[in-house]
Specification:
It contains ten helices and no strands. The protein is an all-alpha fold. The chain folds into two domains: about 45 residues, Orthogonal Bundle (Arc Repressor Mutant, subunit A), CATH 1.10.10.60; about 140 residues, Tetracycline Repressor, domain 2 (Orthogonal Bundle). About 20% of the residues are buried.
Amino acid sequence: METQRKTRIQIENQERILDAALEAFSERGFRGATIDQIADQAGMSKPNLLYYFRRKKDMYEALIARLLDTWLEPLRELDDEGDPLPELQSYIRRKLEMSRDFPRESRLFANEILQGAPHIRSLLETELKPLVDEKAEVIRGWMKQGRINAVDPRHLIFSIWSTTQHYADFDIQVRVILGPDRGAEGRFEDAARYLEALFLDGLRPAASRDSLPKVQSL
């Protein structure tokens, strides 16, 4: 049985609802956000909203599924045939760009994890873990080849996640501490340069520092 194709208006309304739901969930969490708040934020009646999404949970799960797919894309692009330091530099940059461009999504994901991942545990087990396992083996392979220093690859990935997503989840704190001169848009470039020095210089083997390609700013 074919699914009826959505009209342009239906697609636009659905996206408007999801954007309003993202705002509500990222600010108040799943429990704190209400359908009435989301409908008001979307500028439509509650019955109209419920035509597209019957339950608050349906909106939340649609956002989470979309978010996880977006969140994992930079890690998927880590290329086992590439040079390890530029590959990791690109990964750090992409993660920072996501913190800059998708702060609400980052806070939504953080809130879900802090609540014990009640809605996405199965996705973490079936999508996130296999991908991290795969890329951890890529990183481990670079280490065995002597191309980067030996560290626990999973903890390396965790560290990149925590340091890059900090700039989304704690954005107000970052801007207040940096002040008006350094807390503007340039804070992400400053963060990128710092994190590159922190991770990449630490991973570069001391015996081959001169022979390995220098990391260039992207």
